[in-house]
Amino acid sequence: MLTAKQTKFVEEVSEGSSQSNAYRKAYDTPQMEPKTVWEESSRLRRHPKVAARIIELEAEKAYRQRIQALSREERILKELEAVAFGEGPVSAKLKAIELLGKINLEGDPEFRELVSEISALQKKQLWGDRRKTSLHEYGAVLSII
Q: Range of 99's domain?
């Protein structure tokens, strides 16, 4: 079990403070020389319970960051899927499909072929405004995804 001062030191270090600054915030140091603060903070940092708790907090922080990154990736994928398969401009659908491919299936030859087919259809202006073509006509192409 850590003391209150040790806990404060650990929290400060895990939030990014230097060992000396964390020590100054946790302990009464106005009368101490900077060298003494540095020595004591280094000694405290090496204390087995303090070191273990710092490692725990850093691991928890890394875990939270990874979860946030995964959550962000999931939101991006859902938004791209909504654009790709929802109502809206065909050019936006094509771009969303291409981005989904880069994210998920970059090395998949079938997906690259699908994107090529969609691009070819777009170049022939089958997707454009000049000819009102239903997406259902291209369902076979999109169903591969």
A: 86-143
